[in-house]
Amino acid sequence: MKTDCSGDGSVGRSWGRRVAEIPTRRDASLCRRSPKGRSVIGPLVLAAALLAGCYCPWRAGAADQTADVVIGLLLPPEEAEGASLRRGVMLAVDHVNREPARKVRVVVRGRIGQWGADAVEAARMVLDDGAEGLIAPPNGAATHLALQVAGRTAVPVISLCADSSVSRTGVPWMVRIPPTTVEEARSLMAGLNAQARGPQRWAALVPDGRAGREISRDLREAAAAAHCKLDGTHEVSSNLTRFEAVVAQLVKARPDAALVWLDPVLAGRLARSLRDAGFAGTLAGPSRCNSPAFFASCSQASEGFVVPAIVLHEADEARLLSFQTDFRQRYGVEADLTAAEGYDAAVLLAHILRNNDPQSIPRSFPLAFSLPGASGDLSFDAEGNRKVVLRLLAARQGRFGPVGRDHEERTGAR
To answer: What residues make up the domain containing 272?
Structure first.
């Protein structure tokens, strides 16, 4: 499914890049190999190229510096925070198009129907719609598919996925906007464990399937780094099957604290059910739970729920407030963290594409500059991970605010 958000409904221009001009690295090859020697690039990506009517992903022709900059947003239908992400991206495009530079427009695609495939839609954005860069959602599977397309076409990817595996794919022209799951969980465990009588035994609630396995792996790594014990992880289905059983198992295990590593709505429901079932330990979750949707689903059970957050300085706070005001005025709802990160992804990608010739874009990575963003300063390390300093926030009366000074954990910029 494709949505063209340019306003005129026109299909994006195609643009070229010669194979010989694509930079290669031994430690970050375009087509990584599995231990058995098979290419990581799956058949879906090749099928996408065939569906687009072109086997070779690099089209001939010089870039037209007067044409619109086309950004592709991959948005699977099951993405829990899809509306916020899309709104944040569209607000960013509106803002950057006020500048005297090439206009930016967005093409939104996601699979449709039982036989649809996000890899096909990601490839179509590049090959059919002329997208010069992609924004990938928090969904880990969708981000990996976008990176497979990027590995074949050398288009840059800005990801909103916190899985640590995202920056280990060997695709050098990518960055991620949120901190990694390992960073956020480590800051929670170490920060709360530093308290007097802080939690020693932790449990975790994660999504089912591949997403849960990726998160569980990252949480175990974070627990080891924070010198805490993660007793076990409990998978929670998005359709809430075995919901009560999972809650009962965790309450019976009686850990000191539980990481509720789910999307904001589901995390809120789990937190409320755990409190209703008598769980008295600490509850904590990822930064994206700093969301109106979390409080709406959690109600009074949100009290004391802890999340990590990027430390913002005075100028950062002013930019965030300005973004939140503009978002509220445009959409009539409060912005959440995903909306701010989507906004930052679009602003960053527009900056990269406007200021580089298409053939030189891959060589502009790793990014050596920083930009001011709605979610804080946008600067990245050599692996594409965002450089951040984290602190802890606790829910009080329907909003998150700083915990006491003694409870704060600062990770330090990398």
So the answer is: 181-311+389-407
Distance in angstroms (rounded) separating the CA atoms of residues 386 and 374: 14
Which residues lie below 8 Å from residue 51, measured CB to CB, with a gap of 6+?
Answer: 120, 123, 124
Whether 169 and 143 have beta carbons less than 8 Å apart is answered as no
Residue 414 counted as domain residue: no
202 and 161 housed in the same domain: no
pTM of the predicted model as reported, rounded to 2 decimal places: 0.83
* 153 burial level (CB within 10 Å; 0-12, 13-18, 19+): buried
Q: What DSSP letter does each residue of 354-369 carry, written as one string?
A: HTS-GGGTGGGPSP--
Q: Note whether 161 and 229 are same-domain residues.
A: no
Rounded-to-integer distance, Cα 237 and Cα 243, Å: 8
For residues 298 and 395, membership in a common domain is answered with: yes
Per-residue model confidence (pLDDT) at position 393: 96
Write the burial class of residue 192 (CB in 10 Å: 0-12 exposed, 13-18 middle, 19+ buried). buried
Does the residue 109 lie in any domain? yes
Same domain (yes/no): 341, 365: yes
Q: How would you label 385-411 residue by residue, b for 16+ Cβ within 10 Å and e otherwise?
A: bbbbbbbbbbbeeeebeebeeebbbeb
Q: How far apart are CA 335 and CA 292, in angstroms?
A: 8
HSE, side-chain direction, 13 A CA sphere, residue 135: 36
**Strand 201-207 vs strand 229-236: parallel, antiparallel, or unpaired?**
parallel
Query: What is the 8-class DSSP label of residue 194?
Result: T
Phi and psi torsions of 277, nearest 5°: -85, 0
- Cα 257 vs. chain centroid, distance in angstroms? 25
Output the pLDDT for position 61.
40
pLDDT for 93:
97
Report whether 221 contacts 250 (CB < 8 A): no
Q: Is 383 domain-assigned? A: no
CATH number at residue 116: 3.40.50.2300
What pLDDT was estimated at residue 3? 66
Q: Are residues 34 and 162 in the same domain?
A: yes
Q: Quickly count: other Cβ atoms within 10 Å of residue 195's Cβ.
A: 13
Could you tell me the mean pLDDT of each successive run of 10 residues in the chain, 414 residues long? 52 34 37 38 46 42 69 90 95 96 94 75 94 94 92 95 90 96 96 75 92 94 92 84 86 93 94 94 95 91 95 96 97 96 98 92 94 97 96 93 58 37
